[in-house]
DNA sequence: AAAATTTGCAACCGCACGCCA
DNA sequence: CTGGCGTGCGGTTGCAAATTT
């Protein structure tokens, strides 16, 4: 007998999330914290399955998420990490705390994969955008070696949970960085008001949206169950979220500055690994982005293994 | 200017895994 | 030990926006 569905499919709404739903979800999580997703639809009245709630939260509503264009640095990291880890997007995302695995996966599939293909078809060197990326030879061997390497790395990771966290040279970690929601407080009241004033059919236009490539109007497709589904700009979702967070913080703290510690502690047990649970990044980053190594991908794995073997302490903690 | 095609991304689906009774 | 449940993960899809014809 097969597993029952994660949720009752009858009456479950699908498709794009509306701002109302986002607000309900965020409010609930702000009160109860993430987790126990099963109870979220029940307790909030959201006509969404628990999975959908979790996905919406982790991929979109969670604080600390950076949206918009990937930087060169991020792109290189993804390329290198993908070479090391394969399509283990969650693992890759753990090294890019501001990005979700879904985001990284999408970026890989839509941008980097093509780049790879281009390079593979013999245009190496012609690509002005990415001179650090080249298709490795003997991929199977390397993958095998990678897996061994990763097993070692995972072990180190597991054993170094209580090690001090790296911070320097490290991309800002959402669990310690200043909340972007607090920083956008100025716009928030206005944005929230804008959104509230506009009819659901009139999407909130970006007033401080991230520099995303374009804006998708999620529209009513896929969520026809609600005849009056609010259409809104996906890229402004964070704007709505900003509004929620900051609105709440404004009501409790006149300064409008969210108590980051409160929020951060609140979400410490999220799906994204905290900095404490990560392998010290600086050394890996340094190694990954060492130009010499980057230009010599064939030696990448060997270098890493060698490095690990010759300097095992580097993989434990920064000295 | 309009139609056709491509692109990008949010969301869904199904499987896997760990926990617990 | 076993089965149910909750959650996480990776692959895939659907559709609006952007681009090309």
What does this structure look like?
The chain is built from 14 helices and no strands. Helix 1 (19-32) crosses helix 10 (237-252) and helix 9 (185-197) crosses helix 10. Mean pLDDT is 55; it is low at 1-8, 123-144, 157-239, 247-285 and 287-319. With 319 residues, the protein is an all-alpha fold. It has helices at 19-32, 39-44, 50-61, 72-85, 89-93, 101-123, 139-159, 180-183, 185-197, 237-252, 260-266, 281-288, 291-295, 300-310. The termini are far apart. The protein binds a DNA duplex (21 and 21 nucleotides) through residues 3-4, 6, 14-17, 35-38, 50-52, 54-56, 58-60, 87-90, 101-103, 105-107, 109-111, 212-219, 221-222, 234, 237, 271.
List keywords for this structure.
50% helix; 0% strand; disordered N terminus; 319 residues; single chain; DNA-binding; disordered C terminus; mainly alpha
